[in-house]
Amino acid sequence: MPSSELRKERRRHVGDAGDKDSQHVVKKTKFGRKEMRTVTRTSRRDTPKEEDLIVEQDVESDDEEEEEAVVDKPTANDDALAYSALLTLLETDHPQEKKKKKVVQEVQQELIDVIEDDGDDDDDEEEDTITEKDMKLDDDDFNNQFDAFNLHFNDDDKIEKIIIEYNSSSVKKPKLIEKSIIDDYTKLDYRYDLKSVDKPINFNNLSSLLKYHNVKQKINEKFQEFNNKLTKLELNLINSLLSYQNINFQYLDNELIKQNYQTYYLLHSLNHIFKTRDRILNNTEKKNKVLKQIEMGLINEEPDFRDQGYTRPKILILAPTRNSAYEIIMKLIKLSNISIIDNLSKFKSQFYDDFNVDDINDKKPNDFKEFFKGNSNDFFIIGLKFTRKAIKLFSKLIESDIIIASPLGLKMHLEKNKSNDKVNCDYLSSIELTILDKSDGLIMQNWDHINTIIQNHLNAPLKNLNDLKIDFSRIRMWAINDQFKKITQIITFNKYTTPELNNLVLNSGSNSKNSINLLNGVSIYKPIINDYNNEINKFKLKLIKLGLINNNVKLKQIFNRFETESIQNEPNDRFNFFKNTILQQIISKTSYNEGTLIYIPSYLDYLRVKNYMKQETKLSFVSIDEYSSQSELTKNKHFFSNYFNNAKIMLYTERLHFYKRFNLKGVKNVIFYGLPSDSSFYSEILNFIIENKIKIDLNNSKMILNDNEEDETKEEADQLDLNLCMIRIMFSKIDFIKLEKLVGLKKAGQLVNGVSEMNEFN
Predict the structure, then answer these.
(1) Which residues pair with 671 in a beta bridge?
(2) Where are the annotated segments for Disordered (predicted)?
């Protein structure tokens, strides 16, 4: 479909949906802001509304008087523009009109065709070769008893012994063997209690670490550029990477780690690719010589050269946006020291964009600016193939060494082509390293996509065996025996962790389809949160500096614990506590009857609360979520901020806040139905009250200065005393990970295990 037709289709849907929650029918007026939009989305892909066919990033202006405007950003060329526009019409399971269903299906197929067209059509590429020098170096690696690559993937006898021991063991989960304090972090080291498993080794300097793990010389040189700058924390992280441990690393506010962690895991990835390639090429040369000797009758038996899996792709990197993929690939190119890059111009035209949030609104939080800069589209998949002299971008996935994709793009490609004989979807069958970059962003997009990929597709048995030219004498025995899940490495880097991420690396969820990494276990790195650097204390210090709170003025935050017996019962227990306790306090105990914001992290919880309030109460409320149209957002925000419209309560979802970071006006009370996934959201939500307070005080000061007696009544109505604001935070013992970021580790334990079910912070 041409981009011009897509824009027409998009405009037909703008602003045509009304708000079903509002109890007022008013003539539609122009509220809103002038905004520039880029292609992205604010909602899950699995349950979009009709309006979500318009998938755009809206960056809000603070000027309420500006009118809405849709500005299409130019891209590198018309094809790229049409392609980007097509990406807005993807997966949908919600009931739609037949016409719209047809449009979506056509666009989905066109998108998949575009992905397949990106493949490498050069079937006559020269076979890669290995130099005599590299052959000797690989022989040295093969004979190195400490080489991490050998130990983890090529020592078939040891791997078989560990797997047999694990299968006969009654304990299937790793146990915590060491808890250490490193700089301002806690490192938790988990290992399987097996006799054949090696104990962890720590290093005091980078040189000894790299030498021990026998890192490739050119990778060693790149690592050495950091030698005099590395902290102890970074040294431990590099050791965990090169040891092939599963890793969950939270960088939170650690700017040094945020700046360097990609470089560390990319160097680890390059080391893995280069070692794999040299081993395969070296063994191929050896095998050819052996075959000639057999032909000549000099020897009778061919030795084993087991050095690979079934397919070429070895590394999968999942990233949330095209811009994040662009940054990863450009860093990878720089670190590789390879100067010939095929399809680089094509890559830049499809992945690069110079969009900067600051150009539209410089008041957004820094993490928002970072996440949504550049091309924030979340549908992509690209293969990278390494030869001795070049990196080929957009290589066929089945012929790639590294695959970089968004969860949505990868899932769509796999599911849409599973019955397509022309497309081989076995490219994930032999993945050895899986890296989730900016995992917090992946969670906000849709964690179900990650689950589908990890559990159903990653290291799954081959489906198109006949399409592959496989020399089974080269396949590792543990691969033939389908033991990938017991060997492979999974790494996640994220601003904050969640139970889902911990379960992924620890394999401690309700299923057993994740990597268990028998040989080297798991390392979890989490920042130490205490009484001083927790989110509540940082927010309090900010208010003190602004002069808004003191001994007489406080912003009281009441944490209410509800009891629950299990994760399965928790949603019902939370809802009942809200319905029977918190909602009654909103009705009877608020000093300000208007301006109550209810923040709800889970969309399912949001729907449940919304339906209950609509059907079972007479409360006047509006609601906005990630599926709301722009007209709904504008109208309901106005109803809520303008008290004369009588919308006393607003329901507000976490995912909408992540994608929009609105500065909601008129907020006087806040109810956290659940703890925010990102602790910084807590301060951002409470800041709505502070902004409202500052605005009211400023307006009142102007009235006094102008001695405007006619507005005396209005002046009285617009007072906001922070002492009278109601702030309630609902939590249970299951929320401990989130609670720790807000109040610190010690106080989180007290809140969860203490006698009192209600605790006040101010």
Answers:
(1) 598, 728
(2) 1-77
Instruction: Give the pLDDT band of residue 261 (cuts 50, 70, 90).
Output: very high
Report whether 393 contacts 400 (CB < 8 A).
no
HEC profile for 638-692? HHHHCHHHCCCEEEEEHHHHHHHCCCCCCCCEEEECCCCCCHHHHHHHHHHHHHH
- Rounded to the nearest angstrom, the gap between the alpha carbon of residue 432 and the centroid of all alpha carbons in its chain is 20
Count of other CB atoms within 10 angstroms of residue 602: 17
For the chain, the residue count is 762
Neighbours of 301 (CB within 10 A): 6
Burial class (CB in 10 A: 0-12, 13-18, 19+), 684: middle
At residue 735's C-alpha, the angle toward residues 448 and 543, to 5°, is 110
Distance of CA 239 to the CA centre of its chain: 24
Which of 138-152, 686-700, 730-744 has the largest mean confidence?
A: 730-744
Q: Which pLDDT tens digit goes with each residue over 622-671?
A: 999 999 999 999 999 999 998 777 799 999 999 999 999 999 999 999 99
* Sign for the pseudo-dihedral over CA of 73, 78, 84, 85: positive
Mean pLDDT of 114-132: 55
Nearest to 446 by CA among 86, 735, 37, 91: 91
Query: d(Cα 414, Cα 424) in Å, to the nearest integer?
Result: 9
DSSP 403-456: EEE-HHHHHHHHHHTTT-TTS---TTTT--EEEESSHHHHHHHHHHHHHHIIII
Return the number of other C-beta atoms located less than 10 Å from residue 402's C-beta: 27
Q: Which residue segments constitute the domains of the chain, with CATH numbers given? A: 3-117 (no CATH), 132-527 (3.40.50.300), 535-761 (3.40.50.300)
CB 273 within 8 A of CB 315: yes
Cα–Cα–Cα angle for 238, 240, 243, rounded to 5 degrees: 105
CB neighbour list of residue 489: distance below 8 Å, 6 or more residues apart:
152, 244, 245, 246, 247, 432, 433, 434, 515, 517, 520
Token code pair at residue 503: 């379960």
Cβ pair 375, 322 in contact under 8 A? yes
- Cβ(740)–Cβ(756) under 8 Å? no
Calculate the dihedral angle through the C-alpha atoms of 577, 579, 580, 581, rounding to the nearest 10 degrees.
70
SS3 558: strand
How do 522-527 and 185-191 pair as beta strands?
antiparallel
Tens digit of each residue's pLDDT (9 = 90 or more) over 155-191: 888 999 999 999 998 888 899 999 999 999 999 999 9
H or E element: which one contains 333?
A: helix 322-336
Question: Following CA atoms 319, 321, 327, 330 in sequence, which dihedral angle do they give, to the nearest 10 degrees?
Answer: 80
CA distance 368 to 359: 13
Q: In this structure, what token pair is assigned to residue 417?
A: 């082509």
Please answer whether residues 757 and 695 qualify as being in contact, where contact means their C-beta atoms are separated by less than 8 angstroms: no
Q: Which amino acid is at 724?
A: L
Name residue 315's beta-bridge partners. 402, 433
User: Which helix (H) or strand (E) element contains residue 175?
Assistant: strand 175-182
Six token digits for residue 500 = 């889902």
- Alpha-carbon gap, residue 527 to 538, rounded angstroms: 15
Do the strands 340-342 and 390-393 form a parallel or antiparallel pair, or are they unpaired? parallel
Res 468: pLDDT: 76
Report whether pLDDT(43) > 70.
no
The pair phi, psi for residue 330, each rounded to 5°, is -65, -35
**Listed residue (365, 762, 695, 351) closest to 554, CA to CA:** 762
pLDDT in tens, 543-563: 999 999 999 999 999 999 999
Tokens for 327?
A: 């940054």
Distance in angstroms (rounded) separating the CA atoms of residues 650 and 609:
11
